[in-house]
Specification:
The structure is a homodimer of 196-residue chains. Chain A has 196 residues and is of the alpha/beta class. Chain A has five helices and eleven strands; from the N terminus they run H-E-E-E-H-E-H-E-E-E-E-H-E-H-E-E. A six-stranded mixed beta sheet of chain A has the order 5-4-8-9-10-11, with helices on both faces. In chain A, a hairpin with a 3-residue loop joins strand 1 and strand 2 (19-21). In chain A, helix 2 (32-45) packs across helix 3 (62-72). The radius of gyration of chain A is 16 Å and the shape is globular. At the A-B interface, strand 3, helix 2, helix 3 and strand 5 of A face strand 3, helix 2, helix 3 and strand 5 of B. Strand 3 of chain A pairs antiparallel with strand 5 (76-79) of chain B.
């Protein structure tokens, strides 16, 4: 098991409905040493890509995005869900729904921070149905920029998101892919990294 | 001028109504080198405090909080505004309004991540009326933990928040305090650091 799988086994909690609680290290309390290691690992995996910006979605992608951007020595940009936010100038906009059937929410990125010359690494904490990634990809494409890759900490392999992204031809690197998990026993089954 | 004041002068934009746009380096695109320097500076200013956790408010405090927590070698915790979020167990809750007259919003922190033994450094990007800081302070106090200090990147000194926090006896360190700014000329007047 790699360092993320080990941490999920140690500190993750499975809840009914395919929910994995990672709030003690990933997305409420942030373990800085772990997040630093996440940044290193994505830097290693995408070392050959000429990344110019790291893009993520607020809120839970920001700490990971910070770490990854730090390793690449490039700026972090986070897409914003709050349309009341104070931005200067024009924006690219896309819509995202957290769950099927939910009312979509507008997400924006200022046009100043995504240009046609940009080669973007998109990162996020969790990949489930892929709606958030699709939204981020559409923002990059609206800017005429290039998606170099997608970096995910925990992919729920029992949902469609990862499959769809790979079918669309994107290079998706997930540090842990969960194929099944059981809320009664708290057991988690990871996919073999050779078998994506 | 210190490094934050210089950056505000270079890249900040003043808008009517006391609005300062810092989205190119602080809270939409994040300049990692600058944010790293912010972390170093807060670490220097609070070096004598036995900080055990850094606390901030989602969203725009997270990158700064990450940098500060990295320098202190402690976890970052960010208070969450989204009550639909997946957390495990009980929470401390407080209410915050962004602006006077606005409907207050509930903010929560899991009880797992603030304990009576904690000595907390609260950080945020902007201090205006202080509602966000008051909310974070009340979460720390609800946990029986100790507020060691408040670290702010940009304080709007022409509003009441900073004055109120200092009057309440908190140690507030603002890297830049703006006493006045003019949307027509984009001029910004900083307070002398000796004159807080």
């Amino acid at each position: 098991m790699n360092f993320i799988q080990q941490r999920i086994i140690r500190d993750g909690t499975v809840k009914a409905g395919g929910i994995l609680i990672t709030d003690s290290f990933l997305n409420h309390q942030v373990d800085i040493a772990l997040t630093d290691q996440i940044g290193q690992e994505f830097h290693r995996r995408f070392a050959s890509c000429p990344i110019t910006r790291v893009l993520t979605m607020e809120t839970s992608g920001i700490a990971i995005g910070y770490s990854v951007a730090q390793k690449f020595g490039v700026p972090l940009v986070y897409a914003k869900k709050d349309s009341s936010i104070k931005l200067d100038g024009d924006v690219y906009a896309a819509e995202v729904a957290c769950c099927p059937g939910e009312e979509p929410q507008q997400v924006i990125v200022s046009k100043k921070f995504l240009t046609p010359q940009d080669r973007v690494l998109i990162v996020d904490d969790i990949l489930a149905n892929g709606f958030s990634l699709q939204c981020l990809i559409s923002l990059v494409e609206a800017a005429g920029a290039t998606v170099e890759g997608l970096g995910i900490v925990v992919e729920k392999g029992f949902l469609e998101g990862g499959h769809r992204m790979r079918n669309l031809g994107y290079r998706l690197e997930s540090l842990a892919i969960i194929d099944a998990m059981d809320a009664d026993t708290n057991q988690i089954h990871f996919r073999d990294p050779e078998n994506h």
